[in-house]
Structure formats: structure tokens, C-alpha cells
Amino acid sequence: MSFIEKSGRTVDEAVESALAELNVQKDEVEIEVIEEPSKGLFGFIGVKPARVKVKIKETAARQARELLGKIMSLMNLDVDIDIIEKDEKILVNINGPDLGILIGRRGETLDALQYLVNLSANKNMEKRKRIFIDIEGYRKRREDTLKKLAYKLADKARQRGRNVILEPMNSMERRIIHTALQGRDDIYTFSEGEEPYRKIIIAPKK
């Protein structure tokens, strides 16, 4: 239910009743006053209550939660979806048992899920928000693994005096490698190739 009509002795009372039933906060809804309260004849005969229509605002975060909830239900996955909304981005954390199927090989399924949710949740929104999805802390673990790999291969390139070519990675993972090594003065990094086969080269400085 995305909207509800409620009555009350006052507009505020009717609104509070609607918020309680919808289980949302006031800043998450649009309020339309259908009818103001009136006391009627002699102040009590024919008293009319206030009537309001309260509609839940469509936001990217709400759309993302609904879409992910449907996907998890169709896959028979019991999960907790935690959403943190910031100024320009939305952070989604999914937790539950046996979620490897949502991560896929090196996060490929997770990246595809994130891409689809971004497209769907931001559709028809005046202001787009970047949605980042993580599952059971996978992205942090993957980031730590990539940093360790970057340091190891940078040392290898320096010691051997020749380029080291990494396997193809997506733009987010390439950024982690570049950032991890940008402070080194003995090697430098660059990317070459076309997506989805674009890869990083770690080269020793002459």
C-alpha cells in the first residue's frame, strides 16, 4: 500500500494515524488535506472530522529495497537488507546464509545485480543516486585481497625490471589497484584494452 486515507478530530491526528499504519516517518510522505474538520451546528451537531490522504514518496532507496526484496523472495533467500542513504549515494548491505550465489565468480553476479538495481531504482527520479550493494562484507574482503596483490606484483615488477600484466578487471577494481600504488616512486600503473577485457599494467620506472 503506497497511500492511505484517514480521518481524525484534527488534521495532525489523521496524519499521525496514517503514518502509524504505513509505518513511515512524516518526511517520507506527501500529505493532501481532503477535508478540514468542522464543528457543525451549535458547535457539536453534525461534527465533521478531518480527512487526509497520505502517500509514500517514491525514492531510489525505497525502490531499491522493494526490487531487492522481490528478487530475494523469488530466489527463496532469507536475507536482511540494510540501507543507508547519504547525500549522493545509497549503501545497501545484504546479509544472510548461503549468499555466494549472489556474489558469483569474483563478484560478477553482484556487479550485475548492482547495475540492474541502479537502472531500475533511479528510473523516473529527478535526482539520481548511485547505489552500492555489498553482500556479507564481500567488497571489503575483495578490496583487501586486491591491495595485497597490487603490493606483491609491484615488488615483482620492480625486482624483475619489466612490466607485470594483471588479469582483466572492472573499473571499480582497477581503481583500487591504481589507488593502492599511486604513492610508489619506483613503479607506475596504467590501463589498456577495451571493456570488459581492460587490464592494468604495472611498470617499473627507469
Give the topology, please.
Elements: E1 3-8, H1 11-22, E2 29-35, E3 50-56, H2 60-74, E4 80-85, E5 89-95, H3 100-103, H4 108-121, E6 130-135, H5 138-160, E7 164-165, H6 171-181, E8 187-192, E9 199-204
Parallel strand pairs: 5-6
Antiparallel strand pairs: 1-3, 2-3, 4-5, 7-9, 8-9
CATH class of the largest domain: Alpha Beta
Radius of gyration, in Å, reads 26 Å
Q: What percent of residues adopt helix (DSSP H or I)?
A: 25-40%
The number of helices is: 6
- Return the CATH topology of the largest domain: GMP Synthetase, Chain A, domain 3
Largest sheet: 3 strands, antiparallel
Number of domains: 3
CATH architecture call of the largest domain:
2-Layer Sandwich
**H-E string:** EHEEHEEHHEHEHEE
Shape: elongated
Adjacency order of strands in the biggest sheet: 1-3-2
Identify the CATH homologous superfamily of the largest domain.
K homology (KH) domain
Structural class: alpha+beta
Average pLDDT reading: 89
Which residue ranges are poorly predicted, with pLDDT under 50 across at least 5 consecutive positions?
none
Strand coverage percent: 25-35%
User: How many DSSP-defined strands?
Assistant: 9
Distance between the termini: 65 Å
GO molecular function: RNA binding
Protein name: RNA-binding protein KhpB
Organism: Desulfallas thermosapovorans DSM 6562
Function: A probable RNA chaperone. Forms a complex with KhpA which binds to cellular RNA and controls its expression. Plays a role in peptidoglycan (PG) homeostasis and cell length regulation.
